[in-house]
Write a structure and sequence with these properties.
The protein is α+β, with helices and mostly antiparallel strands. The chain contains 8 helices and 8 strands, in the order H-H-H-H-E-E-H-E-E-H-E-E-H-E-H-E. A hairpin with a 2-residue loop joins strand 5 and strand 6.
């Protein structure tokens, strides 16, 4: 699973270069999560997860506070969570998760992104079955062996634990996300390189030359769309 972690790092690094856009997207996600339950992360697991992700992207406190305060107010904005699936060049597959207040606009924008960048949309289920929902948590400060021992003692199951570039990466079932983090926090680990619920491809493909360039452009165009939250793919991106 090592290259999968690198793909997540590369995606995150790309997004970090567009901080104002990322902050705006997180503001929307935080607002929606806070509206779905109590505006308190200790009482609202969805909000707690979004805030943990926001920390790894260095979202400022005032952005978070403003979104939560907005959720407490009387004016309600309605958003739909929609998933689109499609194909890129030479066997590549993509999943696009969106959060939108205008379904027609989002569908048109996502379709145009695929059509203009060498891809094509698929029907629901045409791609997602080749991916697994996975919690990925990465941090520094302990070895993979020590981390595994801690989690076993706490009776927390994980799929895999690796160590790359002094970062320990834990892959677990989505419902174990908070349990893993709680074990780590009890050990004094509160800063995470990555804390994501992601979709990992069961099998990666490798693209080269123009195919990889085309896929990267497609991902960038999708990421730039206002309503897109996450883009997942099955490509082992080469440096």
């Amino acid at each position: 699973m090592g290259r999968k972690w690198n793909n997540i790092k590369e995606k995150k690094a790309s997004k970090d270069a567009n901080t104002s856009r990322i902050y705006a997207k997180f503001g929307r996600e935080i607002y929606v999560a806070a509206r779905q339950g109590e505006p308190d992360p200790e009482l609202n697991q969805s909000l707690k997860f979004v805030l943990e992700r926001a920390k790894t992207y260095n979202v400022p406190k005032h952005i978070i506070d403003r979104a939560i305060e907005k959720a407490k107010g009387g004016l309600e904005e309605n958003y739909d969570e929609l998933r689109y699936e499609g194909f890129g060049p030479n066997g590549s597959m993509l999943i696009v998760d969106t959060l939108t207040n205008n379904v027609n606009r989002t569908a048109a924008d996502v379709r145009a992104a695929f059509n203009k960048n060498g891809g094509n949309m698929g029907v629901n289920g045409s791609v997602a079955y080749m991916f697994d929902a996975t919690a990925v948590i990465g941090f520094e400060g302990k070895s993979a062996d020590d981390t595994l021992e801690l989690l076993m003692e706490a009776d927390v199951d994980v799929r895999d634990i690796l160590e790359e570039d002094n970062v320990v990466i834990i892959y677990a079932e989505p419902d174990q996300f908070h349990a893993v983090q709680e074990v780590l926090k009890q050990e004094g680990i509160t800063e995470f390189k990555v804390a994501e619920l992601t979709m990992l491809a069961q099998n990666d493909v490798v693209l080269s030359g123009e195919d990889q360039e085309q896929l990267e452009k497609l991902i960038d165009v999708l990421d730039d769309l206002e309503d897109v939250r996450q883009v997942y793919h099955n490509v082992d991106l080469q440096d």
